[in-house]
Amino acid sequence: MFLVMLIVINQFGNITVLAESLAEQPERSLTIEVDQEEAALGEQFQLRVRGTPDLLNALVIDKSEDLIEGEVKQLNDYERLITYSSQHSGKYELTARSGDIQSNTVSIEISVPEESTSESFNVPEESTSESFNIPEESLSESFNEARSSEPSITQESQIERQEELLNYDIGISAERPTLPSRHTQTLKGYIQGGAGDILEEYGEMVVRVPRASIGLIEFIRVEVADDSPLKPLAFYQEGTDVVFPFTFDYEGLNEAAQSYTFSITFEVAFFQSGGTEPNNDFQVSLTYAERAANTEFSITPIPSSRPIFSKLYYGSREIDSQGNLGNLLIDGQDVTNSNKFILQVNYEGSRKDGVVVTDVLPQGTTLAPNPTTWSSTGNREPISGGVRIAEVTNPGEANVRTHYVSEEFVDKVSFNKETNTLVVDFGNLAEGQSYFIEYALEVTDVDLFNEGRQEDGFSRNRASMTYNNQVMSRDYRLRIPESNLPAISLRKSVDKNVINLNENELTYTLHVSMFSGTSNTLVIEDVLEEGMEFVSFLSDIPSFIDAEVNNGIVRFSANNTIGGPTSFTLSFKVNVEAYAVGDQILNFATLVNSDNRLNTSTVRTRKIDGRIKVIKTDENGQRLAGAKFEILSSDSQVIQEGITAENGEFLSEPLPVGSYQVRETEAPEGYLLDATVHDVFINEYSIEEVTLTIENILDTGGVELIKHAEGSGEVLQGAVFELQNRE
Prior knowledge:
Structural class: mainly beta
Number of strands: 55
Oligomer: single chain
């Protein structure tokens, strides 16, 4: 019996020390064996690896590059089965290692089948990549030049083998057979075949992944090689699966052998010890026509932990050779869905006073206006330019539930664009009161972002929480990685996120950044929603861009070659008078560059009724005319004045979102002045005027009687009087 101490750093940054007895577990060693001593070209064989879970998680197989890895299957915690094949004959040796532990060595002989004498067919160089597990096949030479009209027995066997090998092949594997909750999984797949094997009549190639294994849908990335005829379509949920369809650009596919790869990357679902257990193993399928391939992976729940203050990042991160997550990779293009942060405030739930959270964003970035949402209930509208606040509704339970309460924090959240600083003032928090702050980074200037990098090549993002006269800080290192995706980005903004019922125009601005390369085919399309009317282009359109409007589509196109790096903006006005109070006005734009289409995030504007209605009544509810009022701004400046009409009402002009005070300056004749100053708040969800009812008391007048002593004039006490009417 011996004891192993494991130090675990969970996703909240807390350290847990686990002691585990290994008396009943296998010895900490690695052993391997192959299922056969010989295999033919292209034939698959399997390598079985045995070892403790910690060794298998950091497993490396030393082998020749001629051995192509296929499916990797986790049989149990202590066994893994790996499939290999080879296109080249010879004797190959394999050894497993993990850290300083090394296994025995096994060998296998790969030989050429007796009936196959043709040379191997080379898959095109540009379609291969070490990052994808692509088995190669042996294709026979063409037999178009047959020596006789009737093929010989040898020719018949060769033709049959050629027809067999020309059939397409597909495969898929999980990069990490077992991984912790909330870590990143990448599925890598391929399809390959000879000329004429990939046909339009076969329809779409489809990957199915269990929805329960995927975290937030918004963080899924589907990638294919640049200029590949393999094209991913929009993925969707069907039943219990997320479906990833692929199609092809079929032009030219009948003329050459084909080999195409793809990857699907996502953050796996959240499972926590003591909560809902994952339904392992999760089965993934790839189908095309009548062929099918499968793989699987399992998810390990993370330890339960509730820190005082923590910052979580829901974007791409560096992964080291052991599969551990490292520095943050900020997406400079598809920013809204990729660069998301969540700050956990008082998650452990004890009472705290004077809680203030401060988050300093890196230079060259700002708040994304509409970040993807957490799985919370409630109103999902962001405040302060792109912030949401969610309250934990089941403190202390394993599977956290939250409810958006952003509207309660409108006057407690601020974002200073000059200092790039976000501040949230929570005040005093009672026991069990916890919150999540949700936002995303938008890269506005890549050059400025990179200028802010420190000597280690990374920019910084620092958040802190002040409470009970102490400070906790969280510091992250960030960089924008190199990408083989198009080096062009498009962002859309609107001049107003809220308009009043007397405002009818919006200005939309498209921010175009070309980070590198050139383009003379740049096209941007903006489809105006129903109810929008185009008004005019603004003067910021550069000379190398043509602008036009046709059938409700605003279109910008390059009339010359645009070279990067460069940035420019394109602005236009629309009329939105047709929208009613309470409506959300939505719009996005599409960037078209060669074969690539990129949609911007949707910008939103809400139409509100920002008026204040004052109703003046007496003690019996009777409406009173003639009362004069003034409306004061938050800095006590008089901005409007008015008087109640015959119906007892005074209706102000529309006012912007903010805090106001209403004060009576003159009461109706015969009534006492109301000296109370009434606070009124107009928010971004106001769909009708804010109504304030003020009651006046009737001024009944009075009589003062004073009794004096005759002669001396001294005031006398105790006199009793009776007041009688004239009669």
